[in-house]
Amino acid sequence: MRRTTECGRCGGALLEDIGQFVRSGRLGWGIDTDCAGCSLVSCGDEWGPAPASVRRALLAEHGTFAVRPAGPAVSLVGLLRALREDGTRSLAEARRLADELAATGLTGTLVEMEFLAERLRHRGVAAVVGPAGAGPGQDSAGR
Question: How far apart are CA 140 and CA 143, in angstroms?
């Protein structure tokens, strides 16, 4: 997403390009900036979950998406492995998220949910991603 803010250096218009990505099987995020007033330019990508400010901006711009199991039989082991393989969650946190995922789905940015869906599929759990308001088993087109 793109937004314009005030440059902290010169007070000019600072164009920010904010995004998330998946590269080489890893989730990342970045903010690129360009100021028309003082020619300040910066580019930076970081690995891992995006900070809250980046997530809020992306959710406000593009909406909230959900990942849900695509079928009735869900492997708890597959869910736990997919949720823990990035090393950022305890077993207890993964179990809580697995229960939520199996019941109602998990929500976040489109990139986060597509990334999780791919990890679930890799672990043998069929998953669909769609707008957070779509019902269970529906894709982004409401099917």
Answer: 7
DSSP 40: -
> Can you tell me the distance from the alpha carbon of 28 to that of 47, in angstroms, rounded to the nearest whole number?
4
Helix pair 76-84, 110-122: axis angle to 10 deg:
130
Buried b / exposed e along 83-106 (16+ C-beta atoms within 10 A): bbeeeebeeeebbebbeebbeebb
Taking alpha carbons only, the member of 82, 86, 84, 7 closest to residue 41 is 7
- Cα–Cα distance for residue pair 54/70, rounded to 1 Å: 29
Q: How many residues does the chain have?
A: 143
**pLDDT (tens place) for every residue of the chain, 143 residues total:** 898 988 888 988 989 899 999 998 889 999 999 998 888 888 888 898 899 999 999 999 999 999 998 877 677 888 898 888 877 788 999 999 998 998 889 999 999 999 999 999 988 888 999 999 755 443 333 33
Per-residue CA distances from 105 to 64, 97, 115, 143 (Å): 12, 9, 14, 16
